[in-house]
Design a protein that fits this description.
The protein is built from 6 helices and 8 strands; from the N terminus they run αββααβαβββαββα. It has helices at about 5-10, 35-40, 40-55, 70-80, 130-140, 180-185, and strands at about 15-20, 30-35, 65, 85-90, 100-105, 115-125, 145-150, 165-170. The chain starts with a helix and ends in a 15-residue tail after the last helix. The structure holds zinc ion. Zinc ion binds near residues 28 and 177. Zinc ion binds next to helix 6.
Length: about 200
């Protein structure tokens, strides 16, 4: 399966849409990506994650970790492919309301000293949550050996320890509403993905 095939699959599953979208950030974009729509079919999730696992299996991880929620399925399926443990990190309020939440291990999950850990994601955009998971791994005394993500939206190669592996690189442009060329053309209606018309 080539990168082109992966993109085709995303389009077929409506996980990669083209048009005129209002993102949750408030920015406008000609594309919208929703990995969950590909991962909702376990047989596709399994296939894609096996492919990604093959790319980074030589890192010989002993455990796979992803951030909740997006990283859970990917962590689970890569763990299955590599036959290693799969855990996830989740956000907990740091204390007072308004303080940024931190990623932690709960549910009895733990990483052992010097354990080789592969950090996984469904999509890497800014790399912020990925960086937080890497930090969590380090603080646990384990060793982050690399990062794997189904989709790389970073637009560059983030400097992750051990290297960065992905199946699909996409560059999705975003615009502030007043600078959006699609708004200026006025041909396509602005769509808010994932929103449903509520019955009042
Ligand atoms: Zn627009």
């Amino acid at each position: 399966m080539t990168e082109k095939d992966v993109l085709k699959l995303f389009k077929k599953e409506k996980a990669f849409l083209s048009g005129h979208f209002l993102l949750s950030s408030g920015l406008h974009s000609p594309h919208y990506m929703q990995c969950a729509l590909v991962l909702q079919k376990p047989w596709i999730a399994e296939k894609l994650c096996r492919l990604l696992a093959k790319k980074c299996g030589r890192l010989k991880p002993q455990v796979v970790i992803g951030p909740a929620l997006g990283g859970i399925v990917v962590s689970y399926e890569i763990g299955r492919a590599l036959k290693v443990r799969s855990v996830f990190a989740e956000r907990l309020p740091a204390g007072k309301a308004g303080v940024d939440e931190i990623l932690t291990l709960r549910r009895g999950f733990s990483l052992h000293k010097n354990e080789r850990v592969l950090v996984v994601e469904d999509v890497v955009t800014t790399g912020r949550s990925t960086g937080e998971v890497i930090e969590l791994v380090r603080q646990s005394g384990a060793k982050p050996v690399g990062v794997a993500s189904l989709v790389d939206r970073s637009g560059q190669t983030p400097a992750f320890p051990g290297g960065f592996f992905s199946l699909l690189k996409v560059d999705i442009q975003t615009y502030a509403s007043q600078e959006c060329p699609l708004c200026r053309e006025g041909n396509t209606a602005l769509v808010k993905p994932g929103s449903r018309t509520k019955k009042e």
